[in-house]
């Protein structure tokens, strides 16, 4: 199994071009396709939905989220 | 496709001279033309509108936003 | 005894593939199997339960928690 | 055009001896002549007005603002 | 006396395997045996009691507290 | 004029042994003679007055303020 | 006079084994004998009194305060 065990930042790299949900410290959530991510967890999302208090609050074609705001990133698909 | 995939900071460099919206941690949003940006996400905006609670609250000819306040940057145009 | 005494980050490495609870600064708790962790305490959890105010609030197949949000990590099993 | 495009910190250097408004994270604003600024955005202002909730709240002959408090700096004049 | 004067981090190292109370910034307190600690004040506690508002609120067999949450560490025994 | 233009930290060094007011992020203000200051804006004040909500709240013979709490430092005298 | 002028961290070193009051960002104050201090302002206090809202709230034989919580340190005696 050890071969498939990735460090957290490598795991996130493997999720590039996959659907993710990015939960921020302010409790808002951004769901979209993660085009890229770097070691600070700066994230590019395309076709992103913003969810506030569980409800869809906005749509964004392309956003770059600053990594220090990230609480966690949910990977929606098997890697 | 890999050629066109940029790291987040490179993507932001590509958006220089384009229209962006910069959402800050205090929930205010600044929309304008991004003249430049550095690796801390310090951003120069010109002809910027400040939006607070969804309403236009001020206009600025030129502002430099300190990067550590940035929540995300929305890129308004295709790159 | 000194042989079995690990530094905190080494102890966390030893807990990889074990069940843990990750308590965040916002008081939410994430319980699951810790697939990996790095020196910033960025954590990969699988089959994770989110607990808010003591009640189960969500389930996640796979999440990567950004380490700077971590309050403490409870190791559920003997190492 | 590329010759006149400055990085954010260089742009701020170019604004030395010009009038600026420094908005802080606590929402107070300091307007005055920027005598100097460094790479942390530590700023020296002279003949500065403090504005709180839109009203003039104090005057300062010379203050040094610690950069980490800065939200943005508005450059009042063309550079 | 100078021989017995330790720097704060060395003093904490000397308290390994002793009983301590770790007060966090959120005002919760964790009392237990400190198995190890590193230079960030990341702490391993075993047989730990969580105290909230002065009352026992939970017990933990083994937790690793992230150091940046620590307010102070009380050393319960003479060193 | 360029000879007399100092970087912010150099300007603060020039104010050593002068009267200053140190405004902190928590809105308290400390007025006294600045005996020394370093590059983090750690400040030594002697014969210091603490002002809270505009009123004198305490006197201190000698205090060392940790720089990261500083909002701004007002230099009371011409340099 | 220049010989007796110390940088803030050197001044704090000179106060080792003297009585100090350590005011934290959460407004609590810890008074005791400062056994040692390092460059992060991590402080060891012995025979320490905790004061909350001006009243004595606890006594501690020996505590190590994490430096990033410090607002200021009052030096009670002439150096």
Question: What's a concise summary of this model?
Answer:
By secondary structure, chain A is mainly beta.
Architecture overview:
7 copies of one chain form a homoheptamer. Chain A is mainly beta and 79 residues long. Chain A has a single domain, classed as Roll (SH3 type barrels). In chain A, 9% of the residues lie in helices and 53% in strands. Chain A is built from 1 helix and 5 strands, in the order H-E-E-E-E-E. Chain A has one helix at residues 8-14, and strands at 19-24, 29-37, 43-52, 55-65, 70-75. In chain A, strands 4-3-2-1-5 form a 5-stranded antiparallel sheet, with no helix packed on it. In chain A, strand 3 and strand 4 form a beta hairpin. The longest helix of chain A is centred in the N-terminal third of the chain and has 7 residues, at 8-14. The model of chain A has no long low-confidence stretch (mean pLDDT 93). Chains in contact: A-B, A-C, B-D, C-E, D-F, E-G, F-G. The interface between C and E is medium-sized, with 21 and 21 residues.
In CATH terms, what is the fold-level topology of chain A? SH3 type barrels
Number of self-contained structural domains of chain A: 1
Q: What is the CATH architecture assignment of chain A?
A: Roll
Q: Roughly how many Å is the radius of gyration of chain A?
A: 12 Å
Distance from N terminus to C terminus of chain A (CA atoms, Å) equals: 14 Å
- Could you spell the SSE succession of chain A in H and E letters? HEEEEE
Pairing-aware structural class of the strands and helices of chain A? mainly beta
Considering DSSP H and I runs of 4 or more, what fraction of the residues of chain A is helical? under 10%
Shape of chain A: globular
Which quaternary structure do these chains form?
homoheptamer
Poorly predicted ranges of chain A: none
Number of strands of chain A: 5
Q: How would you write the strand order of the largest sheet of chain A?
A: 4-3-2-1-5
- Give the largest interface: C-E, 21 and 21 residues
CATH class category of chain A? Mainly Beta
Total of helices of chain A: 1
Bin the strand percentage of chain A. Answer: over 45%
Largest sheet of chain A: 5 strands, antiparallel
Mean pLDDT of chain A: 93
């Amino acid at each position: 199994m050890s071969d498939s065990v990735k460090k957290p930042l490598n795991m996130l790299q493997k999720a590039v071009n996959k659907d993710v949900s990015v939960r921020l410290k302010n409790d808002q959530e951004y769901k979209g396709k993660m085009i890229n991510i770097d070691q600070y967890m700066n994230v590019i999302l395309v076709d992103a939905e913003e969810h506030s208090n569980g409800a869809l609050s906005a749509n964004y074609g392309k956003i770059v989220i600053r990594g220090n705001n990230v609480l966690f990133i949910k990977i929606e698909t098997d890697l």
